[in-house]
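Weekend entry, working from home. Most of the wet-lab plans are on hold until the incubator is repaired, so I used the time to fold the two sequences that have been sitting in the queue since the last round of cloning. Logging both here for the record. First:
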Amino acid sequence: LAAYLTRFFRGRKILAVVGMMKDKDVVRYAENVAPCLSAVVATRSKNGRSASPEEISAVFGRFGVPTVGMDSDPVGALKHARALLPGYDMLLICGSLYLAGDVYDSLDLTKS
């Protein structure tokens, strides 16, 4: 992800909704992706193995990425992030496929 963002979106203000499983290497993930991000909205997926939004926020904060919102409900986190979009160039949902699955149905994919 970091290589892709660096190659195709360098210099863009990226807001990321991030949720990960607590048994994954959250620190290493954040270390790699953080240089590409402007801010995060920390959340968790509905899967019981999820790290808490507070954990996600703390790890990304260690790498200089501010948290602009936290919500334990992934759809709520996405709504919060979408409300902030006028200040950013793009919105990224990342960290876990479980998170992507949790928010997929709430996305309006008919708009371009």
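Second, folded right after the first finished:
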Amino acid sequence: MIIISHRGYWHNQEEKNTETAFIRSFDMGFGTETDIRDCNGKLVISHDIPNGTEISLDYFLSLLKGRDLPLALNIKADGLSDLLVSSLSKANVTNAFVFDMSIPDQMSYVRENKINVFARVSEYEKTPAFYHESFGIWLDGFHSIWYDKSLVEGYISEGKYICIVSPELHKRSDYKDLWKMLKISGLSVSTQLMLCTDLPEDARDFFKEDI
């Protein structure tokens, strides 16, 4: 299983999606999830509507310094695919996937087939859009761990990669229940599985024999 940090590896709320959090994550060998928006014709890193002070996507990619670490790119606005693919190509970044764009925008990503797309699945979206065209699944649980081993194994058997959202991202305290399920079930040894977490060091220690 691959562990990725959520908005970088931050130690306080103000560090989310900042250079400090990204450098810490990359230097410790973790890939990261982050949010992509556009501002004045350029792509920037921002979860909320940008105000012009955000770091650019190009600068974010430069922080990798050539390291082959996975990037999960949360697409927060439509029509960004051409600029995004161009930036990734210039930075020679291939270990990346996109998710969470609108359905019409997702259609353009899968049709152009220039970057890996993960389809969202949650308790509200149990039938993923463009499942067969998607490279993987972004598996979320807003209120509970509603899925089980068999669902994850089913995706794996069909060749999909899966990134599971750890419950603390939704301010829930049952994340250790999920981690235990992944470990006890043997799912954590799968190279097709990723875990997106606010606690990457804790997760690495917990799964140290499996990753």
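Plan for Monday: verify the second prediction. Helices lie at 19-27, 57-62, 81-90, 103-112, 149-157, 175-185, 200-206.
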